[in-house]
Amino acid sequence: MSLIRLYDEIISVPDDMTYAELARKRSREKEQVMLVREDGKLRELSKKVKDGKSVSFVTILEQPGFETYRRSVSMMFMKAVQNVAGWANVRRIILHFSIKYGFFYTVEGDFDIDEAWIADVESEMRILVKKDIPFIKRSIPTAEAREIFCEDRMFDKERLFRFRLASRTNIYELDGLRDYNYGFMAYSTGCLGYFKLYPYKNGILLQMPRRRFPGEIPPFEPMEKLFKAQTDAESWAAKIHIEDIGELNERITSGDMFEPILLSEAYHERRISEIANMIAERPEVKFVMIAGPSSSGKTTFSQRLAVQLNAHGLRPHCVGVDNYFVNRENTPVDEFGKKDYECLGAIDVAGFNRDMCDLLAGKTIQVPSYNFQTGMREYKGQTLSLAEGDILVIEGIHCLNDELSESLPKESKFKIFMSALAQLNIDDHDRLPTTDGRLLRRMIRDNRTRGYSAANTISMWDSVRRGEDQYIFPFQETADVFFNSALPYELAVLKQYAQPLLYQIGESDPEYEEARRLLKFLDYVIGIPSDNVPANSILREFIGGGCFHL
User: How far apart are CA 459 and CA 268, in angstroms?
Assistant: First the structure.
């Protein structure tokens, strides 16, 4: 028998008991238990209980448990596709990207995909849930793993693992389906009962629960503009032959990165020029409203757009909505009693509208400047008025919300949503979350410009994400245009800056778990210096050395 501390209780358990068996007997959580924390470290439920350990369970409500659920449902979906179509008939299953609460896939093979076929796959997934099939984890030599990937026609994974120094690799098996997964997996299919399949565009949308409502499947809401932005990004990455991290590493090791960097930056410049042209063709537009989540590169984008608007014969003026923050003492508090700088109430909406309407009426306004050290709005004598051909480029998280600019005529506004939508995944079956790229960007910038540690940035990230979900993403489909600020090569550059910061986080720090996850991911990428990154690149907003005043 072994003695362990389960929460605050010392209990005795059989030596050969797994954490999955312990969870079924002694878990006090109501939601699905996905993982276990053993002495503060995440472990899969298939692990045997160890004597003297301190143990607590991780449910789908926590981010690691939530990601484990989604990752496991994804592998179960692939197994169901193979069962319905026949293994020999499936050439390739590609998880492209996330759309709100689901994953978008395409399936290539010698069969027709229609609504009936998709319904058969969903039925097969539900059969797999009822069978309660375990995910079996095996540690094998990396060379053997590469042979398995070739044998199973997963050539993207074989390419990825050419650049792995680790001598051994973890392979998961689900009822004969072998795969490598970036992260922990569930104990078995029995806890994966919430999902729904939808035919969408040229593929399949696998809808899954929201983290905070694990027992509900939200209805699928097509997001046409987001989908187009993501597919355009994939098409561009394919043109420059950087579709996944394995291909990126191949380009780096061949010494062939100068051209991809220049082409990626040229693509951004072309897209910004196209947007400027769209604005110039609408003379009624006086306000360009730019919104996007944290670390999208809104400030650099605004200034690059201003340059292009100038080239199109307009006279742009950049305005930051942050300068209209209410004085800190008047900032609303959130549900936890903390000041909520993300909500619309943190902005002097009335004052913003008054100034914008005065500008439309031909009046001159005093331009405010918010002092983030004192928490006070200040006026330093800067004035602004709009003449013929003048246009305002306004940047802020609420810019797509019409409540911010409720007094302005609809036709006077041109709305832009921007985000760093990841253009490459780890491999066909493992996606790179868009939020990971933005977190790395912010971590580097916060350290460089504010002296924040990586732990500081990680500790705030969940709150930042909640604000984005509430105040930014609900309005993204109202934008006139999307701009994707991600660059196919950027992870190779960010790695050099992020790794040292992440290694500063100690095992006793609450952020250690997340730091290790990010370090593990960065280990897949070969780093490159930033020498060839242009001075006007959006990436310079984060790593420094840019030509714009930020």
Answer: 32
